C-alpha cells in the first residue's frame, strides 16, 4: 500500500454508487463495501447493509482482504467466511486500480447464506410486486416500437381503470396523459396505435395531445 493521490480518491468516490447499486440489486442480505488502500488509513469508505458484519465507514481493512490483495488476482474466487455473530458469508473481493494499474481500493461483497430462504426471495423481488399483483410488468422488454406501445398502453390502462378516483369519462384522457409523460408519442404512428388500443378515434388522441402541449 502507499499514499493515495487526489486522483485515486476521485476514482474511489466515483465507485461509491456501485456499492449502492449492487446492494439494491441483491437486497438486505448482501453487504457491499469499498475499502480505501491509502496506507495512512486503510479502511472502509463506503458500505451498504453493514448490519451483516456490524461494520461502518472507518472500520479497518481485514487480514483476509489484505491476503486477497496479494493473491495476484484482481477478482477473487468466491469464498466462505464467518461474520462476528456466526453467520456464514459467501464473499468475493475485487481490486480497484488507477490508470497506472496501482491498487487503490477493494470492492467486497458478502452475502449471508444463512438468511431464511423466504426472506432472501422477498428482498430480491421489487418492492411493489406482490403475489396478488396481476398488473403487467412496469418495464417492457419489447422487440419493436409497436410492441412497446401496446405493452405501455396495457400497463397504464390497467392502472387507470383500477383507480376509482378517476371518473369513467376521464379515463381515456388520463391514459393518453400518462403515455405522453412517458414520451411514447415521439414514436412513429404512436397516435394511431394509441387510438386503436384505447378504442377511441385518432382525432380524440390528437385533441388530448393539443391540450397537453
From TrEMBL:
Residues 12-118 form the YheO-like domain. Residues 153-210 form the Transcriptional regulator DauR-like HTH domain. Coiled coil: none annotated. InterPro entries: DauR-like, DauR-like_HTH, YheO. Pfam families: HTH_22, PAS_6. This is Putative transcriptional regulator YheO. It comes from Sinobacterium caligoides.
Amino acid at each position: 500500500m502507499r499514499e493515495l493521490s487526489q486522483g485515486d480518491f476521485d476514482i474511489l468516490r466515483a465507485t461509491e454508487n456501485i456499492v449502492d447499486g449492487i446492494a439494491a440489486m441483491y437486497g438486505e442480505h448482501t453487504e457491499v463495501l469499498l475499502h480505501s488502500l491509502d496506507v495512512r488509513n486503510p479502511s472502509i469508505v463506503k458500505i451498504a447493509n453493514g448490519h451483516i458484519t456490524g461494520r461502518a465507514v472507518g472500520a479497518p481493512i481485514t487480514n483476509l482482504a489484505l491476503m486477497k490483495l496479494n493473491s495476484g488476482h484482481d477478482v477473487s474466487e468466491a469464498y466462505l467466511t464467518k461474520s462476528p455473530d456466526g453467520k456464514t458469508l459467501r464473499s468475493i473481493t475485487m481490486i480497484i486500480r488507477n490508470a497506472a494499474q496501482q491498487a487503490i481500493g477493494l470492492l467486497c461483497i458478502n452475502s449471508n447464506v444463512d438468511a431464511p430462504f423466504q426472506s432472501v426471495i422477498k428482498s430480491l423481488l421489487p418492492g411493489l410486486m406482490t403475489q396478488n399483483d396481476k398488473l403487467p410488468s412496469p418495464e417492457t422488454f419489447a422487440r419493436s416500437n409497436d410492441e412497446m406501445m401496446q405493452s405501455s398502453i396495457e400497463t397504464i390502462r390497467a392502472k387507470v381503470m383500477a383507480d376509482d378516483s378517476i371518473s369513467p369519462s376521464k379515463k381515456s384522457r388520463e391514459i393518453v396523459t400518462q403515455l405522453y409523460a412517458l414520451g411514447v408519442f415521439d414514436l412513429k404512428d404512436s397516435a394511431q396505435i394509441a387510438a386503436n388500443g384505447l378504442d377511441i378515434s385518432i382525432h380524440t388522441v390528437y385533441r388530448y395531445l393539443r391540450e397537453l402541449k
